[in-house]
Amino acid sequence: MMPVANARMYSATASARADWKALLAWALARAGLDWKVIDYDAPAPLSALWARDDLGLAMMCGLPFSQRAPRPTLVAAPIPSPARYAGRPVYFTDIVVRADSKHQRLEDTFGGVVGYTLADSMSGGVALRNHLAPYRAAHGSRLYREAVGNLVHARGVIEALAAGRIDVGPLDSYYHDLLRGSEPALAEQVRVVASTEAMPIPPLVATAALSPDELARLRDALRDAADAPELEAVAERLLLAGFAVPDPADYEVLAAIALRPIPPFEEL
C-alpha cells in the first residue's frame, strides 16, 4: 500500500490548505517519493485519519501521537515563525472571548459558559482543562455554570462565541495565527485573555513502515523546504520558519497531562 500525505490539522483556511498541499507535494518530490497528498476535510473526524496505517507524512495531534501503540514515526515538526514561538516547535492554547466581550481576564469569565472542541483534543480540550484545574481547586466549586462541547474545531469555537452560545473557549495558537493571516475578519471576532504554557506542536508522522533511507530523505526535504526560493511565499503565508526533528519523548508530557485527575468540563 502506497503511503499518503495530509496536513488537515493546520489547513486553517482554503489558502492554508492549498499551501500545505503544495509544500508536502514539493517535499515528497524532493525526497523522490511517489506518494499522494490526499484531501481529508471537515467534518470527517481526524481520529479516523490518525487511525490509518498508510500515513507517510501526516500531521497528528501530539496527544494521540503520545498515546498510540505502536507509536507512529515522528518525521518532523513545524516551527512557526511568529516571535512568541522563539524558533521552537511548540504551540499554545489561546483562551479567547468574543472581541466585544466585557471580559478582560480569564477570571472574568468564571460564572459563564465555557466551550471546547472535543474532550480528547489537546489544544481544544485537555490543555484548557489542565490550565483551569488550579483555579477550580482554589475556588472550591465550579468555575462555570455550563459547558458546551463538540464544537469540533477552532472555527466552531469562534462561531459559538460570535453567536453568544459560549463566553470563553480554546484555540490552537498556530491555527489562530494562520486565521489572523488569511481570514482576519473571522479571527478578529475573538480576543485572547490568556494562553497556556508552551507544549510540543503537532508533528508530521508516519504510521506506514518507512525505511531508514525514506525517513532520512523526507527529513532532509522538509529542512530544505525552508530555504527553497520557490516556496518562499508559501512559507511566509504559512508563518513557517522551518522544520525540526524533536525527540518523540518530548511528547510524553502530553500523555502525562491527560492522565492527571483533572475535573471534566461539566465539573469545572
Could you give a short description of this structure?
This protein is of the alpha/beta class and 268 residues long. Helix content is 36%, strand content 19%.
Protein traits:
2 domains; 268 residues; 13 strands; alpha/beta; single chain; D-Maltodextrin-Binding Protein, domain 2; three-stranded antiparallel beta sheet; 10 helices
Task: Give a verbal description of the structure.
The chain has 2 domains: 4-81 and 202-256, D-Maltodextrin-Binding Protein, domain 2, CATH 3.40.190; 93-197, D-Maltodextrin-Binding Protein, domain 2 (3-Layer(aba) Sandwich), CATH 3.40.190.10. The model has no long low-confidence stretch (mean pLDDT 96). The N and C termini lie far apart (45 Å). It has helices spanning 14-30, 46-50, 62-67, 122-139, 154-162, 173-182, 184-187, 212-225, 232-237, 252-258, and strands spanning 4-6, 36-37, 55-59, 73-80, 90-91, 93-98, 113-115, 146-148, 169-172, 190-195, 199-200, 204-206, 240-244. The protein contains 10 helices and 13 strands. The chain has 268 residues and is α/β, with parallel strands linked by helices. Helix 1 (14-30) links the parallel strand 1 (4-6) and strand 2. It is globular and about 55 Å long. The longest helix is centred in the middle third of the chain and has 18 residues, at 122-139. Strands 2-1-3-12-4-13 form a 6-stranded mixed sheet. Helix 1 crosses helix 8 (212-225).
